[in-house]
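Quick one, tokens below:
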């Protein structure tokens, strides 16, 4: 799993216990997963359909830098299934895992639409050009 997105835990992200508020973290995960699904499916019209049990295994505090790792685990006809891990960037200690997140590809009519994808597309393959580089 590649960890690309990083967040700095700031005072406005904390709960009354002085640790990262779960709702803030879930918002970040949903946004990052949606962006991942959009890039993989090549369509900005995707919606969150399902998020499995979320397992918080450790806390994050103000000043921590956390990173989110997301990868595709399954491609359905109109959906993509992802898994996510959030960890502390410095210690690499896991903060939480989400085993299954399902996003649905929508057509212009707002209904589920086939996406035609069957495997992960990597950035290096998405922006190929015909021009040789010096």
């Amino acid at each position: 799993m590649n960890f690309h997105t990083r967040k700095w835990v700031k005072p406005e992200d904390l709960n009354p216990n002085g640790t990262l508020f779960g709702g803030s973290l879930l918002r970040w995960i949903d946004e990052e997963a949606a962006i991942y699904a959009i890039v993989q499916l090549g369509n900005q019209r995707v919606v969150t359909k399902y998020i499995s049990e979320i397992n918080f295994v450790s806390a994050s505090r103000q000043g921590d830098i956390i990173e989110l790792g997301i990868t595709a685990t399954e491609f359905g006809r109109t959906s993509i299934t992802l898994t996510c891990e959030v960890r502390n960037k410095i210690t690499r200690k896991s903060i939480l895992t989400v085993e299954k997140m399902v996003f649905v590809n929508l057509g212009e009519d707002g209904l589920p639409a086939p996406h035609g994808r069957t495997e992960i597309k990597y950035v290096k393959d998405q922006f190929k050009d015909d021009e040789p580089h010096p």
